[in-house]
Amino acid sequence: MAKRFDIKDLNIYYGKFHAVNSVNLAVPPRNVTAFIGPSGCGKSTVLRSLNRMHEVIPGARVEGKVLLDGEDIYASNVDPVEVRRTIGMVFQRPNPFPTMSIKDNVVAGLRLAGVKNKKQLDDVAERSLRGANLWNEVKDRLDKPGGGLSGGQQQRLCIARAIAVQPDVLLMDEPCSALDPISTLAIEDLITELKKEYTIVIVTHNMQQAARVSDQTAFFNLLGVGQPGQLIEVDDTEKIFSNPSQKATEDYISGRFG
Amino acid sequence: MVSIVLIGLFLLIQAVPSLLVDNINFFTSPEWSTGDVANLRFGIRDLLVVTILSSLVALVIAMPVAMGIALFLTHYLPPRVARPFAYVIDLLAAVPSIVFGLWGAKVLGPALEPLATFLNTKLSWFPLFSGNNVSLAGGGNIFTAGIVLSIMILPIITAVSREVFQQTPVMQIEGALALGATRWEMVRTTVLPFGRSGYIAGSMLGLGRALGETVAVLLILRSSPLPSSFSVFDGGYTFASKIASAAPEFSEPLSTGAYIAAGLVLFVFTFAVNALARYVAGRGKAKAS
C-alpha cells in the first residue's frame, strides 16, 4: 500500500524553459511531506511530476528518476495512465465531476479500473466517504450531484475519490487554498488521519499548515527571475521551522523574504 | 423580432385566401395541383415527409462525424496541426450550394447507385429502405440528397461542437486524468457531459440549415408522379425545392398563395427547431454555472 518515493536528479522543463533544477528528495511512507516556497518556485511542478501529470501540458517534459519503491515511474515501459491509477491527486480547487452523483464521483476511479460489482462499489463509496470524514454529511443524498456540496465538502469528496482506489501515494496541491478556515481545519485533521495509511505529499502556501500537518518539509526557492526553481533544503518539519540550516529558509519562514 | 413577426404576417396574409379555397386537406394530402385556379388541390404531406427524411438522413450522418472531428481537433491533435485541419472543415461552408447540388446530381448520385440498390433490395425489412417512387438509376433520391446535406451542415455542427468542447474546464480534465483515465475515458467523463447541450444546439442549427436548403436539393431530387412511399429512396420535393421550382410561374395570386402556405409551414417548422436549439443551449449554460 503506502510506498516511498525517491526522487533522483529530477529536472523539469516546459518546452525550452528549465522550470526546476536537479531535485533530490526522499519521501518516506506513512508520512506527510510538505513542499513550501514562494510562488513560481516549482513546488507544484515537482508535485505534478510525481504522478506524471506534468507531461499533460504540451511541451512539458522531465529528466531524471522518480522511484516508487525502487521502480522508476518514468521508465520507458511504464504507462502514465497506470501510474496515475496508483498515485492519487487532490487539486487546488475542488473538481468533482459536476454531472455525476456524489457516489458516482467517489467510485469514478474504480469504474475506470473496470470494477462493476454494485455491492463492491457501494462498500468502497461508504468506506472512502467515511475515510474522508464526509459520510455523515452526505449519506442521505448519495444520488444527488456532487456540485451541490459546499467547497469544503467538495474538496473532501475529491479526497474520497482519490482514496477510493487505495493509492500508494496521495498528492495534494494546495488543497485548502480555496477553502474557509473551518473547512481547512477539517481537511488538516483528515490529513493527520490519512497518514496512518498513506504516503502524503502536500504543497502549501500556508506555513502554519505545513508546520501543523507535516513530518518533513522541503523548501523550494527561485535564485532569480528566469532561473529554474531549486530545492533549498529538506528536513524534519520541527527543525525547518526552528533551526533551518540555510539562511534562505530562515528568511522565508520568518517572513523576511524578498 | 419585429421583422420575424412581419415576415410571418406576410406569409399568413398571402396564404389564407388560397387555403380557404383548397379543395383537399392541406395537411394530409400528397396531391399538389395549382394550375386550375377554380379547382386548387394542394396538400403538404409529401413535402413534409421529403423535407424531414432528407434532413434526418443528413443529421444521422453529420452528427457522429462532426462529434468525432470536433473531439479529434480539440482533445487529440496538437493545436498546431488542428488549426489548419479545422480551417479546411470551415471552408466546406464556403462552397456554394449550387456546386454541392451539381456534384450530388452528377457525381455522388450515380456513384451511390449500387449501395442504394443493395439497401433497397437486401435491407428492405427496414421501413425507410423499402419501396421507391422514382427509379434508383442515377441516384436522384432522398438518400443522395441527405448525404449531400450532411456534408453541407457538417461545418456548422463541427464549429459549434469544437467551441464547446474546447471550453471544458481544465481542472475537470486534469481531475479525470489524475484518476487514471485514458484520453477517451477523460473525454467520456468530462468533455462529453460538459459539451452535450452545445453539441445538440449545434446539431439543431445544422438541422435548420438542412430543412431550408433549396437549390442543392432541387438539383438532386427527381420528381415523381407517385405519392411518397415513406422511403429514403423516394424522389419528390422538399418545401424549399417545391417553392423554388415553381418560382417562374408565380403570376396567379391564388396559385402563388398555395406555395406561400407551404413556405409558411417551413417557416414555422424551422423557427420551432431553432427555438428548441436555443432552449437546449440555454439550459446547458444554466447547469454549467
UniProtKB/TrEMBL annotation, chain A:
Gene3D superfamilies in the record: P-loop containing nucleotide triphosphate hydrolases
The UniProt record lists the keyword Transport: yes
Keyword presence, Transport: yes
All residue ranges annotated as the ABC transporter domain in the record: 5-247
CDD domains linked to this entry: ABC_PstB_phosphate_transporter (cd03260)
InterPro entries given in the database record: AAA+_ATPase, ABC_transporter-like_ATP-bd, ABC_transporter-like_CS, P-loop_NTPase, PstB-like
A GO MF term: ATP binding
Listed SUPFAM superfamilies: P-loop containing nucleoside triphosphate hydrolases
Pfam hit, one: ABC_tran
PROSITE patterns reported for this sequence: ABC_TRANSPORTER_1, ABC_TRANSPORTER_2
Keywords from the named record: ATP-binding, Nucleotide-binding, Translocase, Transport
PANTHER family (alphabetical): ABC TRANSPORTER I FAMILY MEMBER 17
Protein name according to UniProt: Phosphate ABC transporter ATP-binding protein
